[in-house]
Amino acid sequence: MSIAVAKDSWEAQRRRAFLLGLAPSVIVLVAITLIPALALVITSFTPLSLTDPVGTFRFDDLLGNYRELMADPRFLGSVATQLKLSTASVLFQVLVGLGLALLLNGSSRILAAVRSVFLIPMIQPPIVVALIWKILYSPDVSPMHRALEAVGLPVRSLLANPDTALWAVAVADTWQWFPFTMLMVLAALNSMPADPIEAASLDGANRWQLFRYIILPYIRPILVVCALFRLIDSFKAFPLIYVLTNGGPGTVTEVTNYYSFVQAFNFSYWGYASAIATLMLAGVFALSWLVGRLDWTRHGRH
Amino acid sequence: MISRRSLLRSTAAIGAASLLPRAGWAEAIRQRFDGVTLNVSTFSAAFPSLLKQWLPEFEALTGATVNYDTPSFPVYNQRTDLELSTGGAAYDVVNVTFIYSSRWINSGWLTPLDDFIADRNRTPADWDVTDFLPGAIAPETGADGRLYGIPWTAEALLTGSSRFDLVEAAGLEFPDTTDDLVRVLRAVNGKDRVAGFVADNHYGWTFVPYLQAFGGNVFRAPPDDLFLTLDTPEAIAAAEYYSNLLREFGPDGAVTYTPDQVTQSLKLGRVNFTDAGQLYLAQLGDAKTSKTVNTLKFGLVPKGPAGRFPGTAVHGLGIPAASKNKEAAWAFIQWALSKQTTAKAVAAGYGSPARRSDIESATFRQKQVINGSDLAQLALDSVDLAAKSGHMKYRTVSVYPQVDQQLNKAIELITTGQLSAKEAMQQAQVASLAELKRAGVKI
User: Fold this and answer.
1) What is the 3-state secondary structure (H, E, C) of A134-193?
2) Percentage of residues in chain B with pLDDT exceeding 90?
3) Which of B252, B397, B414 to mutate to test the interface with A (most CBs of A within 10 A)?
4) End-to-end Cα distance, chain A
5) Tell me, what's the ipTM?
6) Scanning every residue of chain B, which has its alpha carbon at the shortest distance from the alpha carbon of A249?
7) What is this structure's pTM?
8) What structural domains does chain B harbor?
9) Are B413 and A250 inside 8 Å of each other by CB?
10) Per the CB < 8 Å rule, is A51 touching B398?
């Protein structure tokens, strides 16, 4: 009995010590993440406008902003644009990242050097990436446009054309973020045991069959995680839109967080902008939940 | 013991003090603010940069210390809008940004300056507030008729041609009307690989002179009657006309051009005509960076069926209502916008003063004549025209930023062929109405 009490006491002490150790991190987390998020949600229930902050910080119609959003064609359009941009850029990033990882998977010094070069876009500040592509997409100064014109394939401004503007943004986003997938896939390939590939080769499998039946099943969880991480991150695509298109021409590249920015910082409707941000937050939470539900151990069974 | 640092500071102060102005207003503020720290914020531009260089003069004159902050234009506006709206006392002097002036003034976020100006102990007569252009004073005045900002710039929207030699070669003159402009552009577009026309894609600024020239307007009778008039036949005709200038005569990607891109394209002679602020147009006269100095020509914005309506933009210095150093803040404004300081700025090359004495000075006139075009006179004519008709009142309406963006979108939609002029302007009308309702504006 006394041994059990002592054990409980020791476990209780241990738990308390853990909690005490965690407390500073939890306090910081609450202060810098949860409290602002709570403030955002509370603000979304008000029609707060900075032109009349006292008069508009009221709670007489809690769902007013959300009702307005459901009837706001510009908001609904921005969600559709966001989904198009996110799907296209994440798909490109995963395909390009995967392709390059397969090509660059090896131990030679040249491959190592090339891998390092391909990481450069990812370590650039997003605003620098946006400026690089602004130059590339501006016909009067763009080396890309001049080169195409020189070989007899002149291309009109991609950003001013409503049919190509969103694709142009997706390409720039892909350029910056394909190295993330490449890096993750390379890490997975490095940790892959050689035996299954050797055995399949001995059985006469060709390169495609090796990829389809051995490599792809092994790296599939990594690809799914990459896609989900990039999908969550793609909701934050702001500098590219801000620098390249301002959401235009018209509203063809106006994604949801850019629309939220316009409402908050151009029009001072902080309540309305907070409602948009809250809906985005809910979407990101849903995706994060999905990431958490992934079977992380699956590749261990192959 | 005197440290090296304090010795250097004293020497600098003595040096600055020896250059201090001796005017009556300077005597009124001399050594009255010893130990006061002033927080001044405005956006980064030519005049604020000059003031920054001359701050030791103000500090030596008054004894105050100045913290001086000049972020970029959008950052400044967002930061100050937030600070003023929350009743913050972080700033003692702020720039009263033109497009926010109605919101900031009529919300009671700024201090009326009339009492400071009328009190001869604080502001001797030689400071002369009547010297500022009436067209520049008007946007700094509240609905209550009181003055809330002293203007440091009065910029006009003008028309510029970087390759006027092509126009002359076609036997034509500088376009005076909207019809003339099209005639000229048809004659010169594409000659020497030079596109005819481009404008800053902030169409809520560059398009409105055309909207009004066609007899349209943004609101029915601003600032009292804010009924939107974006879908009138006149407004639709103006939007069709302007979008056609960009579509038919613009360079590739015309709707993506920012002000700096417009200036650069005219400097390099890639585009011929634009409508732009005089500060941007004056840069075309810089022989070091411009290839078109010898072929430039400037004029007023074209006249339409309803007349000529040049745009103007005014910025001034004001004092936040929550400032704890209002006396010292007024002393700063007096110094910064005294005849002596603004004349010194003009001598240093400043291009858009708001004092008539500066604009009419020989120093300014000499600098503003570029390849035979008198930018100063054109700007003065524009500001006077804007002041007389009051057509710029639309721009200081507190909800104009919302409508401004709808106009940007509308012109882009028409130019890129996504919507017809009628559809785009009707859409802008409906969307702007929704924005105004959200802002609580009663129409």
Assistant:
1) HHHHCCCCCHHHHHHHHCCCCCCCCCCCCCCHHHHHHHHHHHHHHHHHHHHHHHHHHCCC
2) 62
3) B252
4) 48
5) 0.81
6) B412
7) 0.82
8) 20-155+313-365 (3.40.190.10), 157-310+394-438 (3.40.190.10)
9) yes
10) yes
Min Cα separation A251/chain B (Å): 7
Q: pLDDT digit string (tens) for B348-390?
A: 988 889 999 998 899 988 888 899 999 888 988 998 888 877 7
> Mean pLDDT throughout B275-296?
91
Nearest CA of chain B to the CA of A54: how many Å? Answer: 9
In this predicted structure, the answer to whether residue A12 has a pLDDT above a threshold of 70 is yes
B413 and A CB contact within 8 Å: yes
SS3 of residue B408 by DSSP: helix
Which of B132, B134, B137, B155 lies closest to B147, judged by CA? B137
Of A139, A142, A133, which Cα lies nearest the Cα of B193? A139
What are the structural domains, with CATH classification, of chain A?
74-301 (1.10.3720.10)
pLDDT tens digits, A180-191: 999 999 999 999
The answer to whether residues B44 and B50 touch, using CB atoms and an 8 Å cutoff, is no
Number of CB pairs < 8 Å for A and B? 90
Q: How many Å apart are CA A251 and CA A249, to the nearest integer? A: 6
3-state secondary structure of B299: strand
Chain B residue numbers touching A268 (CB-CB < 8 A) = 81, 85, 103
Q: Do B418 and A262 touch (CB under 8 A)?
A: no
Choose among A74, A160, A251: nearest Cβ to B256: A160
Nearest residue in B to A65, CA atom: B438
Note the pLDDT tens digit of each residue in B119-169: 998 898 889 999 999 888 988 998 889 999 999 998 899 999 999 999 999
CA distance B267 to B239: 27
